[in-house]
Amino acid sequence: MLGSSANCVLSLPSTRTYCKGLSYVRDNARGSQISGLVVWGKTRNELVRVEGEVEVVEVAGILPRHQQHKVVNSIPSKGSTCSFISHDFASRVHASIESLGHDLCVSMPAVVREFPNVFPEELPGLPPHREVDFEIDTIPGAAPISITPYRMALLELKELKKQLEELLDKGFIRPSISPWGAPVLFVKKKDGSMRLCIDYRQLNRITIKNKYPLPRIDDLLDQLKGATVFSKIDLRSGYWQLWVEEGSIPKTAFRTRYGHYEFVVMPFGLTNAPAAFMSLMNKTLQPFLDQFVIVFIDDILIYSSSREEHEQHLRTVLQILREKQLYAKFIKCEFWMEEIAFLGHVVSKEGVQPDPAKVKAIMEWESPKNVSEVRSFLDWLLLQKICEGFLRGRKTFDKFAEKRMHHSTGMTNVLRV
User: Fold this and answer.
1) Cα separation of 375 and 384, whole Å?
2) Which end of the chain has fewer CB atoms within 10 angstroms, the N or the C?
3) Adjacent-strand bridge partners of 266
4) Which tens digits make up the pLDDT trace of 175-196?
5) pTM of the complete model
6) CA distance 313 to 332
7) Is residue 32 part of a domain?
8) What sections of the sequence does the record tag as coiled-coil (predicted)?
9) Tens digits of per-residue pLDDT, 204-218?
10) Residue 246 CA: distances (Å) to CA of 134, 182, 243
């Protein structure tokens, strides 16, 4: 029930799982008993009482029946902050919880409570102009590309109008008279809501690629040896926190049933956007990279060998984010964890292990039947350093791709580990 509040008693099963944040369900009959998993660093089998108001803000979609669900944090207005997921509820619906009001809960670590303005519920407005704005350089002589808008269902048109109004109100887009124009479409998110996507594929084909390197994930994870405490910060709509250079704004233009618009902040879907944001974050946190911070695009992981060190490390990063006016999404952040999921892995003082959800997805991956599917599978894998036999399997798959073979018996068993 939307807008409901409750005092909740969480009854925990003994099953060990990796999850973050909170998924909430009210018992239909009593409205007060919740079964789930609470995460305080490592999962512990115990009863935890949460006192205070929580608000159910979204109910949509059916979740698959397995343990690794995406969940979000809850900040009760009073009492403890905890994380849990209800397996019973997961088989029926998904509900998100967000805090009532803007203040961080008193049970949060003191260092986090010092920086409430780093965790706004929405971006406060247009970002400051940073050292470098985002530029789109196209190959010499390339003519502007304008594509007829895609057809949309009535429900999609209604959502399109709503999201355009929101973007205009925030100042992230403006009306355009640009000769450029990409079409738009919607992609359904896991929670059932719709994400507005600009189809920049034609623009990307004629864009000069930014060669700024994204870090190797295995190199990043190597930095975590000896760490025992972790915090993860997820920036809120990170790309929208970077301006587009004025001369490049017309190239971001997109066409819709309701008008022609262009972005003044960096939109999603542009080929050089990840490299540009990676460059920004590396410059922002340069003095501390590989000391107690690793960054992958808009994900920041702070790691420390002790809780005392971690307090100072976390404060340092939050101070920089506040100074640079970079904002995070609290419901996707995790603090003071002994075990944390990051970039498809679970890291702890014991080392780095593959995320169980990712392993499950690999084991259930259907047999590739053509070169495109083989390459897609290879690009998705990130576990070569911790999966025995991976390199042997990788070489076999590479041979399939090189010979442009479209089918082979037994491909699903090549990477059996």
Assistant:
1) 15
2) N
3) none
4) 999 999 999 999 888 777 888 9
5) 0.64
6) 19
7) yes
8) none
9) 999 999 988 888 888
10) 9, 18, 9
